Amino acid sequence: MTEQYEVEFVERGDRESRFLVRGVTPAFANGIRRAIVADVPTLSIDTVRFVENSSVMFDEQISLRLGLVPLSTPLGEFEEGDTVTLSLDVSGPGTAYSGDLVSSDGMVQPADDNVPIIDLKDDQRLELEADAVLSTGKDHAKHQGGVAVGYRHLQRVEVVGDRDEYDEEETNILRGVIEDDGELVPTKEFDHDLTNRFPGKEVEVHDVPNAFVFHVETDGSLSIDELVTAAAASIGDRADELEEAVQL
After folding, report:
1. Per residue in 72-111, pLDDT tens?
2. What is the pLDDT of residue 220?
3. In the chain, how long is the greatest CA-to-CA distance?
4. Confidence (pLDDT) at 1
5. Residue 105 included in any domain
6. Separation of alpha carbons 115 and 65, rounded Å
7. Final residue belonging to a domain, choices 80, 106, 136
8. Which of 51-55, 154-158, 164-168 has the lowest mean pLDDT?
9. 11 pairs with which residues across the strands?
10. Distance CA 137, CA 232 (A)
């Protein structure tokens, strides 16, 4: 029997989104979170060969910075362990940025062009070649395409009556997304304070069973859609492997 899941976007962008998934268990929700962080491969600079470095920084420091530059990663074009070479040749005075990196593959580019690498003074030069390797977040954090991934229960708010006019009104802070008469409302729209949305009302808040709101932010190596879809596919692949192993 096939489980039916419902997915609805609350906020949607290329790099940051919030979406609701209904019909999943807490274990499955956590599995999606872990897969986004650890199982989706991205390209990241791993090895650097310096031709010239007359800057004030050691080779190792510059290599560390280069490894943290997100690179666009086309899904399905590479296998884990494949490499792409990038080069950098910048002379001072001026700042070397991620956008100065030149890739040997047009599909692989810095996700942001304005990440500063180093300031170069007069007569200083930085020339290097770097190999970006495809790997996953479980091998190294620099391969985590999901830089901020979390989830929480969808919460339903029910008005149960009027607040006593003699009661002192106190703030009622709630963060995330609420369901109010079938409408999904991010709590930031009322400054996370239920008394702003329901002035003078007594309300009750309940977790909606098996409904979770995910907040996902990517470093730009993959879009939100690509990242989440690949994470879900990785869970399916592991489930298939387990089923095959059990049947042996």
Report:
1. 999 889 999 999 999 999 998 999 999 999 999 999 999 9
2. 94
3. 77
4. 35
5. yes
6. 9
7. 136
8. 164-168
9. 18
10. 15
| 222 Cβ contact list (under 8 Å, min separation 6) | 40, 42, 73, 75, 145, 230
Taking the alpha carbons at both ends of the chain, their separation in whole angstroms is: 22
Residues 156, 205 contacting (CB under 8 angstroms): yes
The CATH number of the domain holding residue 121 is 2.170.120.12
- Tens-place pLDDT, residues 2-46: 457 788 999 998 899 999 999 999 999 999 999 999 999 999 999
Question: Where is 17: in which H helix or E strand?
Answer: strand 16-22
Q: How many residues does the chain have?
A: 248
Give the Cα separation of 158 and 180 in Å (integer): 7
Please give the structure tokens belonging to residue 156: 């339903």
Q: Is residue 197 domain-shared with residue 213, that is, in the same domain?
A: yes
Are 72 and 220 in contact by the 8 Å Cβ rule? The answer is yes
Please state, in angstroms and rounded to a whole number, the distance separating the CA atoms of residues 162 and 152.
29
Q: Give the relative orientation of helices 224-247 and 26-38 as an angle to the nearest 10 degrees.
A: 110
pLDDT of the residue at 167 = 67
Domain enclosing residue 180, as ranges: 6-39+146-235
User: What values do phi and psi take at 136, rounded to 5?
Assistant: -115, 165
The two beta strands, 6-11 and 16-22, are antiparallel
Q: From 62, 61, 43, 53, select the one nearest 220 (Cα to Cα).
A: 43
Tokens of residue 102, six digits: 């030149």
